[in-house]
Design brief:
With 70 residues, the chain is mainly alpha-helical. The protein contains five helices and two strands, in the order αααβααβ. Helix 2 packs across helix 3.
Length: 70
């Protein structure tokens, strides 16, 4: 068991819906890794916390109130 899981962090297994959603976000952000993180939050119904101004600006509507600026 990893220290993160032992500390209460839940692991999320990526699936095809996460990846397909990320590919659909091409216009949102130039970095595929960032799009995958946003897509994972969207598909999994999670709150996304970031300092990335580009994500904050472009993902607000997509995440509908589940985006927090750090």
């Amino acid at each position: 068991m990893s220290l993160l899981v032992a500390g209460g962090i839940t692991e999320i297994t990526l699936n095809s819906e996460h990846v397909e959603t990320a590919f659909g976000l091409n216009a949102m952000h130039s970095d595929m890794h960032d799009r995958l993180l946003v897509a994972t939050a969207k598909v999994s119904g999670l709150t996304f916390v970031t300092r990335d101004g580009e994500i904050l600006e472009r993902a607000a509507t997509l995440l509908r109130g589940r985006l927090i600026e750090m």
